[in-house]
Every structure is written in C-alpha cells, then in structure tokens.
Here is the input.
Amino acid sequence: QVRLVESGGGSVQAGGSLRLSCAASEGTFSRNSMGWFRQPPGKERELVAAISWKDGSTYYRDSVKGRFTISRDNAEKTVVLQMNSLKPEDTAVYYCAAFHQYIVTVVAGLGVRLVDYWGKGTLVTVSS
Here is the structure.
C-alpha cells in the first residue's frame, strides 16, 4: 500500500514563502509523474504543478507561474513545491499526487482522472 506523506504547510503572511515536500513512506510504485493539487475553501480541487519523473518536464497553472517551483529528488524519491510571493488566494489544502502518466501536458488536461495515489493534504494559510 503506497502512502504519500506531505510536510511543510503552515501559516504565512502575504509575500512570504513556504516549501512543501512529499515522500512515499510505504510501498513502491512506478513514478511516472507527481504533482500538487490544492483545494481552496468552498472550491474544487485544482492542479497546481506537476513534474515528469521521466524527463523532468514541468507544468504550472497560470496563477502560480513565476512564483512556485516544483522539483524532484531522485535519490530521496521526493517531490518539492517551493512557493514564493504567496498571496491570500493561495490559501488551500495542498495535496500531493502520483499519476500514471509521465507526460505532464496530458496530466494538465486530465488532472484528477490520472491520479493513482493521494496524500492526506497539508493546510497552507496566507494572511493579508
């Protein structure tokens, strides 16, 4: 049973930074691509960023481009989301996900339908 564990959430003022990390604590799986979704209060879950384990290509939703950076650590088998210049509208529960597709443009289009495994989520709160 694969378990994805997120860490690094918390509260920060607007303009601040947070770093989220996700690791598979149990089980093994074929890492095609991994990424982060978020679910703001009262809204649907949305894909924030994804990275291909095959070639390192990345996807970002428009609202986070230039502020967020997704990266992978092959040795530690973790995926990291560095979030800078945070805004109140970034407030959400952030979920780590593992996809069964390594092409991130496909992941961007199909999102949740390609998720094999989910983390439990970590809360990010950005105050103005």
